[in-house]
Design a protein that fits this description.
binds zinc ion, 80 residues, 2 strands, alpha+beta
């Protein structure tokens, strides 16, 4: 079931509304304001904050402790 708010395609959770619109109705906030997504920001090339896109992040996730394992291999402390 979809949210009954106009132009909202999110999944309904409570009383026919999605979580965002339910919270807005409960708190008396405007229902027709656009829903913003959480966007990560990082420092850009010239010191400004800019949103992180998949181009800057890349889809593939780095392995944990990759730098540390490389350091251990460099020092000859890691068996491969
Ligand atoms: Zn909604």
């Amino acid at each position: 079931m979809r949210c009954k708010q106009k132009d909202c395609n999110r999944r309904a959770r409570t009383s026919g509304l999605c979580t965002t619109h339910y919270r807005r109705r409960r708190n008396g906030q405007p229902m027709d304001a656009p829903i913003r997504r959480y966007v990560r920001h990082q420092e850009g090339a010239n010191g400004n904050r800019e949103p992180v896109t998949t181009k800057t992040v890349g889809r593939k996730r780095k392995k944990p402790f990759e730098a540390e394992y490389a350091l251990l291999a460099e020092l000859g402390l890691r068996r491969n």
